[in-house]
Specification:
By secondary structure, this protein is an all-alpha fold. The chain has two helices and no strands. It has one domain.
Length: 76
């Protein structure tokens, strides 16, 4: 694993916390019967955006890198 992949994995794990909190509070306020029902959809969109960035970083962290091409023989 390269340093960039490790950094992507660390940031992906860190972003899971705020993304999950936005999703939980968004669902909670969406199902609330008080005046906070209008706040639910924006919170869900922000949570979805954060979790999609975390998913992208997780994909970057775990993707397989292409093996290096063998050097071509000299043309002499």
């Amino acid at each position: 694993m390269s340093g960039g992949q490790i950094a992507a994995l660390v940031f992906a794990v860190i972003l899971l916390i705020p993304g999950g909190c936005f999703m939980v509070f968004g669902i909670g306020m969406l199902t609330d019967n008080t005046g906070y029902r209008d706040v639910g959809p924006p919170l869900l969109l922000v949570g979805l955006a954060i979790l999609s960035v975390a998913g992208l970083l997780g994909w970057v962290a775990f993707r397989k890198r292409k093996p290096p091409q063998p050097p071509s023989p000299p043309l002499s």
